[in-house]
Structures are given as structure tokens and as C-alpha cells.
């Protein structure tokens, strides 16, 4: 099941005599176009002559003569001067989506758009006191479209076509009659988006207030210095492996069904022999191979009778440690919040829960919302006994070794307390949501306000660098092994940040090591095009991650994220390339729409690349593992051209 995404990229005709456009009109041999569904087999439909009623021959003759005389069918320049009225546009709607009948149809040959301040007209009388706070800018086009200006519109601009596409209870395209009209629309849209996002009028003073003077390149991407992206890309190109491109295919190698009736809740990938599928009733052990995961026939049920109420319920987080012989399982206290008061320590070799720990500081029980390893490769360390914890306003390191060097046994002792060995409890306002670590143990933390903070491996008290938010909460964050790139997940887009800067001595450093100053590169956004976004429905981006590297000198080659039934893959090297076609004729922050999609029949729990050691010589990447509630599939990348 699949569809060629390129249907949304077709050229829209200015001819008023046409009412339907086939997706076949776009050139499918474009070598730079990489975003297509991995299992796409449908062929764009051609225009059916039955769809357009046949015009009587006498009228055909008249219309042909009118075309020849250019009385009705003018050139674009002449058409722009027609008295069509202020803010006039041509409105198209996409129909058929991923079926053989996929096409654009003209919805309105001449419609009028406007940006209106909504709120007062939509509120009841008893709520009028709050209309000032609730008011927002909305885009209105004729009588068919009225939608709030925000990232949910998924607006994509095509400057060379004087066109914008967006999602608003369907997929729409707007064509402008002149370049200055297109530019005026885009400028107004950007201003309305800024005001709706931050609550300030869009001007230079307020942009500095939102982003800070050091991050003015984030507010004005056209003035940003992209040289650091180029320098970093050049220094870490890997000659021996080429990232996923159009002539590579994702081939499904293994499919492993969930056993014992337990739905898969999370995936714990191992870098050694095994990986683990965690369900609400137990753990399924699978074997790591160079072509993916395959079952060992081993399933360990949780011993619920021996686990008290401190931490036990459906595990939300599984963390491998001690050379992947132990696993920490953390479960939320309630279904509504991710916070946990403690965790279970599971011995994989014996198949038993050996201890149950609770979080405590200064004699007081506290909660954690997330845990992670001390560093990227820490789970392979056989002596590891510490890990990091994160709560809304806490960042700390926990130690499972008690003061006497023993771990209490769950059978004979009361619940042991983890030792708070390092960290900081912030007074208020940080609203931490997620975190990740680099190869040397530096920490990146994402927040509810969209800020991303960088902490060195030696101090958790003060961030070395704090990147401003772009208006959306960071729900997941990842970082490359070398700490030079950060990938943040929001509901509607991914944000990729370069942490490199040149200090006053001329040395290149990362933002984990020092204050970056005012020459900070603008981030890049990774988005779905409007058609794919609509196909994904109300689902949000989740858990975007780099491919998995734990060795100095090696570079991650891909990025993968989950949205509904889609597993979406970007070529990392391509995203970093400033000359990439996606970035030409764009407005605002550079956004990459070139990706490959793996489509599943069920909502995806998690998508991750296996460790780099499992990449075979003829493949550009280690296998991709995609888990749904009922099965886990492994895809290897082969060098054969996908037939579309």
C-alpha cells in the first residue's frame, strides 16, 4: 500500500479552461526527488476524457480562435493586470489522494483571500470578556476556507510557481496572478504566524525579544550564516558508504509477531546480541542480525505478584545497561502523566525482576518523567551502575550502588532508595520534557516552551547554551555521538540544529563546551509535504532519532521519525547541503521535504535504525526496525531502483 508523494508537487496551469489536472503531468524521472513511499506501486492516473464533457464542435472552433487572438487566454503578465480585484487568487483542491484518481481540480477560478483577526465573532456573549486573549489571525479564502494561521496548516511555498499549498480540512493550493501578490501574501502570512505563535506583533524589536540578539539569524534566516553547516558537512562525509538515495530500496527482511497476546509498548534495541520487545505482560527477546531482528522464541512474563505499587504498571520506558544484561523499566503513576515514583531492575539473564527502586532526595519521595544512559554507548559498559533522570524541573544522576556496595534483594528487603549523586533542582519554569546524551556524556534537554538547552558532562547546574524555542513544545530530542547536531521533535515538524561555533581563539567547538556567541547558524526544519501530512491524519511526529553510531570518526547517515502509520526517513547529508533543491525559492527557515516513507497497516510504536555495526558492506545503513503493537518488521537498504 502506498502512493507517490510527488502528486502534490505538480505544476498548476494558469489556463482557465482546464478544471482538472493529472498527477502524471509532473516529471517522475527527476533524479533529485527522493521523497516517495517505499512500497509505492500505484501509477498516477491520466486525464479521462469522460471526466470533462465534450464541447460542441462549433464552440470548439470559437474557443480556438479566441485562443489564437489572445482575447481571453492572455500571457501571465497580461493576466496579472486584469481587474480581478485585490488579493485575487486561483484556488485548487487535491482529490483522490493516494488512489489512481489522484489529481488537482480547480475549486474557484477567482477567489479572494484575506487575513482576519478571529475570536470575537466566534465567541458567545458570556465569553466576550476573554476575546482579546483568544483572538488570533486566520486565513480566509472565499467562502470555503477559514483556518487559524499556525504550523497545522503545513504551508509549503513554491516561489517559482507563485503558489502555496496547505492543509485545512483537505489539501489546497493557491496560485497568485503576479509575483508581487505572492510576495505580499507570504510576508503577511509570516507576520501573522509570528504573532499567533508568540503573542507579539511581528517587528524587529519583538523578534529580538523572542529569540535574543545572539539568535537573530533564527528570526531572519535570509541573513543567517550557513557556513558552519557546509564546513561540518564537508569534514564528515563518509566515502565508504552513501546514504539512502533514490536508487536504494528498503526491503523487508524479517517480520516478528508479538507473542503471548501482549501488545508491544516499546522497543529496546541492543548493540550486542539481542534486542527486546516490551509489552504490558512481559519481554520478548529477539536476536540481532545484519538484516534485522528475528525471534529466539524466548518470552519472559513479568512477575506481578512480587512487584509492589511503587513502579509497576505497563512499562513506558525501558533502559538497557551493564552490557545489556540488565534493564530498567519505568512506568507512569497514572495514564495521564508520564511521571514515575520509581522503577524495576530486570535481570535479563535470569529473567527476573531483582530489585525495585524508588526516587528520593533528602528523605522526600520525588518523581521522574524520563531516564537515559550516561552516554551514547553506556549500555554496553559491563560495570555501569549509574543513569540520568529528568523531571519537569530536575536534572540528575542516579546510582544503584548503595552505600554498602550491595543491591537489596526484592524478596528480603523493603524497596531500596536510589542515591542522588549529582544534579540540580531548578526553582521553577524549566518545564523539561525530554533529554539525550552524547558520546562523552554531555546532555541536551528539550522543554515545553520549545527551548533546547546544552549541558556539559561535568555540570548540570547551568546550561552552556540555550537555543530559543520556535513556538512548539519539544517532545523528544536526540543528538549525534560527537555532539555536533541536535534533532528535536515537535508535533508538526522536526528541528535540526548545528551546535558548532568558532571561539575567540579561532577553535571550532560545540555549544556543549562553551557559549556560542552571536554567530549561530539558523536551524533547519524537516516537514511532511501537505498531501502526506493530510494522509497522516491527526497524528503527530514522535521520537525522531539519528541512526545509531557509538564510535568517534563515524557520522550518522539518516534521521527517522514516526507519525501515525508512517515511518519517515531523511538523508542526513542531503539535509545539511545548503544547495539542496528543497531550499531554493523558500521563505523563512530552510525546510526539507525530501524523505522516504515506510507505510504500515497499524500505528507505529517506534522506528529506529539498528547499531552501525550491523550495516553490511553493500548497504548504506544498518537495518531499520519498525514496531507496531502486533509485530516488528526489519528493513534492509538494497541498491536496486524502486519501480513506481
UniProtKB/TrEMBL annotation:
Pfam families: DUF7135, VID27. Residues 272-584 form the Vacuolar import/degradation Vid27 C-terminal domain. Gene3D superfamilies: YVTN repeat-like/Quinoprotein amine dehydrogenase. Residues 1-63 are annotated as: Disordered. Residues 1-10 have a biased composition (Basic and acidic residues). Residues 11-21 have a biased composition (Acidic residues). GO terms for cellular component: cytoplasm; nucleus. Residues 49-212 form the DUF7135 domain. Residues 40-58 have a biased composition (Polar residues). This is Protein CYPRO4-like. It comes from Nicotiana sylvestris (Wood tobacco).
